[in-house]
Design a protein that fits this description.
By secondary structure, the protein is of the alpha/beta class. The protein has one domain (11-123): TIM Barrel (Alpha-Beta Barrel), CATH 3.20.20.70. Helices cover 34% and strands 10% of the residues. The protein has a four-stranded parallel sheet with strand order 1-2-3-4, covered by helices on one side. Helix 2 crosses helix 3. It is globular.
C-alpha cells in the first residue's frame, strides 16, 4: 500500500523478535537486512530478544553487514551500554527504559531521560 506522502522514512526491524526467522534461526541476519533494504526501509533496526532487552553489539554488526543504510538500536539502550552500542549504531529508539516502571506502562522519568541524553551528548 502507498500512502503518497512526502518525506516519510521507513524504519524497519530486521530480526523481528517474534518472527519466524528469529525463532528457527534459518537465515543469517545480514541476509534478512538485505531483504529489508530491498523492500524499501530507510533505517534498519537491530533489537534484543524481548522488549527492553539490549541489542548486542554483534546484533548491530550483523544487521550492518547486510546494508549501507543507517542502523539503529531498537531496544535496551541505557547509560551503561550507550558508549558500546552507539560506537556501532547510527542511532537508537528508546522507550521502556525511560519509564518509571521499566516497561511501556509507566510514566516517563525525566531523570532517566536526562541521564541518557547527557551520556549520549558526551559521546558525540
Amino acid at each position: 500500500m502507498q500512502i503518497e506522502a512526502d518525506a516519510v522514512a521507513v524504519f524497519a526491524d530486521v530480526h523481528v523478535k517474534h518472527g519466524s526467522h528469529a525463532i528457527v534461526a534459518d537465515r543469517e541476519v545480514a541476509e534478512q537486512a538485505r531483504d529489508v533494504e530491498f523492500f524499501g526501509a530507510d533505517v534498519l533496526i537491530a533489537t534484543g530478544s524481548r522488549t527492553g532487552d539490549p541489542a548486542g553489539v554483534g546484533d548491530v554488526e550483523d544487521v550492518r553487514a547486510g546494508t549501507d543504510r543507517p542502523v539503529f538500536v531498537g531496544s535496551g539502550l541505557n547509560p551503561d551500554n550507550a558508549a558500546e552500542l552507539l560506537r556501532v549504531a547510527d542511532g537508537a529508539i528508546v522507550g521502556s527504559w525511560f519509564r518509571t516502571t521499566g516497561d511501556m506502562w509507566g510514566m516517563v522519568d525525566l531523570g532517566k531521560v536526562s541521564a541518557l541524553m547527557e551520556k549520549v551528548q558526551a559521546l558525540r
